[in-house]
Specification:
This protein is of the alpha/beta class. It is 40% helix and 24% strand. β1 and β2 form a beta hairpin. The protein binds zinc ion (ZN) (2 copies). The site of one zinc ion has 4 residues, from loops.
């Protein structure tokens, strides 16, 4: 009995693999097409159209327009069981000068998200073969999420003020809207350019973060004729940034603190004292507690700059991402498939503590359900740099699709025994409702009136 069952699973997996291999050219072409048309978060209109069309062609017509550009398609198998989501991220980051950069927006696929979308479609195609439908229990969800890169904060805050967004990243907002309410576990594969790694890298964590949207408000005056009548908001911002730098010696190494930001508006006319300067900042750390502590120091530094110049200050402190918690049992199902498909030397397993310093909203999902965020070493160059490109599309798109599709087969075979075990033994740090509430509670507006 069990031999027949195992044999059956091998045959099912072979059919899934064949279907993905057979679509290799098509899904790589789709990834390359998206690469050529990069769109930053919450504006991925064209990308969303391309992905929705391909999902529909694969037999999983998605519900679209979730969190502006997000979508979700479902495939229901024969037996009853849980729902496993496969995720692809729709957005580009900004990297003017990158070979794919959009001339107007500066958006570029310098984080490899376009290849995730090829892998998403490949997984949908693989899990669409008749052999799968008749043997699996439960459902597979194919979800494309907007705006993983937490950028363009002023634009996103504007969308929120206009009532079009509640939370400012794609997965955060899709959780808030309930798009993940009927999802039991979720995975995606992100590209990596790490030269020292094998084909797939499983394990590790990521930093939590908060986002600061800061406006320094001064008073305009003729910069030549009457500078004494002005209040220089740019000087206030510069002092604040210097003050932040004085804090770095207090950062504890194990917290992996990162404090950084950009000035998105530094004045409007050279011959006028700058009356408004806008700074988008980020505080990252290993835990929310560590982030909150440094964020409070940084907020004091903004005040210090404003105080010295007699400027005013408006800070919106926006809850960013939670640390990534890869589910170990989920990881082991994925890892076994990587080893079977590509060999022992195709897999690197990282300790839970390995943290490169970045952040992802997959971290938020991982706090409310079993989640997996491995990497595929298929890129070269510096992440978010002008030289980050996919060096091996087959690996990024096809191998990732095969690994994820076969993982779903294992999870949902035998009446979804493996998936049920993982879901039952997973201990989420909060419920979905608690997550949404805590994101609302953590959002703070701070004002300081100088002068
Ligand atoms: Zn990125
Ligand atoms: Zn990324």
């Amino acid at each position: 009995m069990s031999t027949a069952r195992e044999l059956n699973r091998i045959e099912v997996k072979a059919a899934v693999r064949r279907a993905i291999e057979g679509s290799a050219d098509e899904i790589i072409r789709l990834a390359r097409d998206i690469y050529e048309h990069p769109e930053p978060g919450f504006t991925e209109e064209r990308t969303a159209k391309v992905v929705a069309k391909a999902l529909a062609k694969a037999g999983v017509t998605p519900e679209t327009g979730i969190a502006i550009t997000g979508m979700k398609g479902l495939r229901t198998f024969n037996g009853q069981g849980p729902t496993v989501a496969v995720i692809g991220e729709l957005d580009a980051v900004k990297a003017p000068g990158h070979p794919s950069a959009d001339m107007t927006t500066g958006a570029a696929h310098a984080c490899g998200h376009h290849s995730q979308l090829g892998a998403l479609i490949g997984t949908a195609i693989g899990l669409g073969v008749p052999e799968v439908a008749s043997t699996l229990s439960g459902r597979a969800a194919f979800i494309a999420t907007p705006a993983e890169e937490f950028i363009d904060v002023e634009m996103r805050w504007g969308l929120r003020e206009a009532g079009r967004l509640g939370l400012l990243s794609g997965k955060q907002e899709m959780i808030r809207l309930g798009a993940f309410d009927d999802i039991d576990m979720a995975m995606m594969v992100h590209t990596s350019s790490s030269k020292s790694q094998r084909r797939f890298i499983v394990g590790g964590t990521s930093n939590a973060h908060v986002v600061h949207y800061v406006r320094f408000l001064g008073k305009a005056a003729h910069a030549g004729g009457a500078p004494h009548q002005g209040v220089n908001a740019l000087q206030a911002a510069m002092l604040a940034l210097s003050a932040i730098n004085t804090q770095r010696e207090t950062f504890e190494a194990e917290n992996q603190t990162r404090v950084h930001g950009i000035i998105t508006r530094g004045g409007v006319a050279t011959n006028a004292v700058p009356a408004e300067v806008v700074y988008e900042g980020r505080v990252r750390g290993r835990t929310m507690t560590a982030v909150d502590k440094i964020a409070a120091q940084v907020e004091d530094c903004y005040r210090a700059g404003a105080l010295a110049m007699g400027a005013s200050l408006e800070i919106v402190s926006i809850p960013g991402y939670l640390p990534l918690d890869n589910n170990k049992d989920f990881a082991s199902v994925f890892s076994k498939n990587v080893v079977t498909e590509f060999g022992e030397d195709a897999l690197t397993t990282q300790a839970d503590t390995v943290n490169a310093g970045g952040s992802t909203d997959m971290g938020d999902l991982s706090q409310i359900m079993p989640a997996l965020h491995p990497y595929v070493a298929a890129a070269e160059g510096t992440g978010h740099g002008i030289d980050y490109v996919i060096a091996d599309y087959r690996r990024a798109v096809v191998d990732s699709a095969i690994s994820m599709a076969l993982t779903v087969v294992d999870l949902l075979s035998d009446n979804a025994a493996e998936a049920r075990m993982i879901i039952d033994s997973n201990k989420p740090s909060m419920t979905r409702a608690e997550y949404v509430q805590s994101q609302a509670d953590r959002l703070r507006k701070i004002e300081y009136r100088g002068g």
